Amino acid sequence: MGDETSKSADPPDVRFSYANERTFLAWNRTALALVTAGLAITQLLPPFDFPGGRRLIGLPLIALGTVTALLSYRRWVGNEAAMRSGAPLPTSPLPRLLAIVVAGSAAVAFVLATFTRSK
Q1: DSSP per position, 49-60
Q2: b/e map of 82-91 (b: 16 or more CB within 10 Å)?
Q3: Which of 22, 24, 33, 49 could be stapled to 117 by a disulfide with Cβ–Cβ 3.0 to 4.6 Å?
Q4: Which helix (H) or strand (E) holds 87?
Q5: Which secondary structure element, helix H or strand E, spans residue 99, and what is its range?
C-alpha cells in the first residue's frame, strides 16, 4: 500500500511553500504601498480645483490595498491547500483587480492634472 498513498499525504516540497510565502509577502508589500500612496494623495497632494479630486484618486487605492491584503491571505491558503492535495493552483482575481483600479486611479489623476488647477 506504500505506492498507493494519495498525494494529499505527501507534504509539498518546502521550496514551493517558501515561494508561496514570498508571493504572499510581495502582495502584502503591494497592499502597504497602495495604502501609503492613497493616504499621501488624500493628505499631502495640493488640492485640485475640482472638489474631492484628491479623494477620487486616493480612496480607491486605500480600498484596493485593504482588499489586496485580505485576498493575498486567501490566495496563500488556497495555494497551500492545493499543493498539499496535489490539485492545480487556484486562479485569482487579484492581478486583474489591481490593474483595473490602478489604471482607473491613474486615468482620474491624469484628467484632474490636465484639466484643473491646483489651489
Answers
A1: SSTTHHHHHHHH
A2: ebeeeeeeee
A3: 49
A4: none
A5: helix 94-115
* Number of residues that this document lists for the chain: 119
Say if residues 24 and 69 touch (Cβ distance below 8 Å).
no
Q: Which residue has the cell 484632474?
A: 112
Nearest residue to 55 via CA among 66, 42, 45, 64: 42
Q: Distance between CA atoms of 57 and 104, rounded to whole angstroms?
A: 9
Which cell is 105 given?
486611479
Write out the chain's pLDDT in tens, 119 residues: 445 444 455 788 899 999 999 999 999 999 999 999 999 999 999 999 999 999 999 999 999 999 999 999 999 999 999 999 999 999 999 999 999 999 999 999 999 999 987 66
